[in-house]
Write a structure and sequence with these properties.
Number of helices: 2
Number of domains: 2
Distance between the termini: 43 Å
Shape: elongated
Order of helices and strands: HH
Strand content: under 5%
Amino acid sequence: MDEPKHDKFRQLAESRTNKAIEAIARIGNLSNRSLYEWDEGEVRKVLKALRDSVNEVEQRFTTPRSRVGGSFKL
Protein backbone atom coordinates (compact mmCIF):
# COMPACT_ATOMS: atom_id res chain seq x y z
CA MET A 1 0.00 0.00 0.00
CA ASP A 2 1.24 3.48 -0.87
CA GLU A 3 1.69 5.07 2.58
CA PRO A 4 1.34 8.75 1.53
CA LYS A 5 -1.93 7.97 -0.28
CA HIS A 6 -3.16 5.91 2.66
CA ASP A 7 -2.24 8.68 5.12
CA LYS A 8 -4.09 11.22 2.96
CA PHE A 9 -7.14 8.94 2.80
CA ARG A 10 -7.18 8.54 6.58
CA GLN A 11 -6.80 12.28 7.14
CA LEU A 12 -9.57 13.23 4.71
CA ALA A 13 -11.87 10.37 5.73
CA GLU A 14 -11.69 11.40 9.38
CA SER A 15 -12.24 15.08 8.64
CA ARG A 16 -15.06 14.60 6.14
CA THR A 17 -16.81 11.95 8.26
CA ASN A 18 -16.75 14.21 11.32
CA LYS A 19 -18.18 17.08 9.25
CA ALA A 20 -20.93 14.79 7.92
CA ILE A 21 -21.80 13.62 11.44
CA GLU A 22 -22.03 17.23 12.61
CA ALA A 23 -24.24 18.14 9.64
CA ILE A 24 -26.54 15.19 10.36
CA ALA A 25 -26.78 16.29 14.00
CA ARG A 26 -27.84 19.77 12.80
CA ILE A 27 -30.55 18.17 10.66
CA GLY A 28 -31.66 16.33 13.80
CA ASN A 29 -32.07 19.67 15.55
CA LEU A 30 -34.90 20.40 13.11
CA SER A 31 -37.01 17.89 15.03
CA ASN A 32 -37.61 20.49 17.77
CA ARG A 33 -41.34 21.19 17.37
CA SER A 34 -41.13 24.31 19.52
CA LEU A 35 -38.89 25.93 16.88
CA TYR A 36 -39.96 24.27 13.61
CA GLU A 37 -43.08 22.98 11.92
CA TRP A 38 -42.95 20.01 9.58
CA ASP A 39 -45.07 17.14 8.39
CA GLU A 40 -44.25 13.44 8.25
CA GLY A 41 -43.95 13.45 4.47
CA GLU A 42 -41.20 16.07 4.59
CA VAL A 43 -39.34 14.12 7.27
CA ARG A 44 -39.57 10.93 5.18
CA LYS A 45 -38.09 12.81 2.19
CA VAL A 46 -35.18 14.13 4.27
CA LEU A 47 -34.43 10.69 5.73
CA LYS A 48 -34.69 9.01 2.33
CA ALA A 49 -32.26 11.53 0.83
CA LEU A 50 -29.79 10.80 3.64
CA ARG A 51 -30.14 7.02 3.25
CA ASP A 52 -29.81 7.24 -0.54
CA SER A 53 -26.65 9.29 -0.19
CA VAL A 54 -25.08 6.82 2.26
CA ASN A 55 -26.08 3.91 0.00
CA GLU A 56 -24.42 5.65 -2.95
CA VAL A 57 -21.20 6.08 -0.99
CA GLU A 58 -21.25 2.40 0.02
CA GLN A 59 -21.79 1.43 -3.60
CA ARG A 60 -18.84 3.54 -4.75
CA PHE A 61 -16.53 1.72 -2.34
CA THR A 62 -17.67 -1.70 -3.57
CA THR A 63 -17.93 -0.89 -7.29
CA PRO A 64 -16.25 2.42 -8.17
CA ARG A 65 -18.13 4.43 -10.78
CA SER A 66 -18.50 7.98 -11.89
CA ARG A 67 -19.84 10.50 -9.42
CA VAL A 68 -23.61 10.87 -9.59
CA GLY A 69 -24.44 13.15 -6.65
CA GLY A 70 -27.08 15.81 -6.66
CA SER A 71 -28.77 18.24 -4.38
CA PHE A 72 -31.76 17.82 -2.12
CA LYS A 73 -34.94 19.85 -2.39
CA LEU A 74 -38.25 19.39 -0.58
